[in-house]
Hints:
- With about 130 residues, the protein is mainly alpha-helical.
- About 65% of the residues lie in helices and about 0% in strands.
- It has seven helices and no strands.
- The chain has helices at about 20-35, 45-50, 55-60, 65-75, 80-90, 95-120, 125-130.
- Helix 1 (about 20-35) packs across helix 4 (about 65-75) and helix 6 runs antiparallel to helix 7 (about 125-130).
- The protein is elongated.
Amino acid sequence: MRSRPRRKEVAEPRRRLEQGEREAKILAEGAAFFAEAGFSGTTRALAERLGVTQALLYRHSPSKQAIIDRVFQVRIGDSRNAEWDRLIADRSLPLADRLIRFYQAYRARSLANIQCSLSRGREHLCQALLLR
């Protein structure tokens, strides 16, 4: 009696992510990947971890450095803020007042970034916190 050849199991097709979802996934996995592998980690290894091609990764970012920069920008926040620059330059206020206001704003922004990094999947909350 001849046995039937085994049928190959067909994987379910992956759902195509919207651009915002894809970028969020790249940034979240990129942060974890570079934290584990260091900056010597390759985009090929990152793409493999994400389950995408390296070409797709480069469609979203022009270089590995751009991915790293974007991860820092999102996770840590822009190190410079135009409003902070204006505040520091405003000589109508005493320097001590300007510095106190600057550090209060910087602290609020940093706390918002921390809250955002802890609230994965709730990006709408992050945007609200960061726009305050």
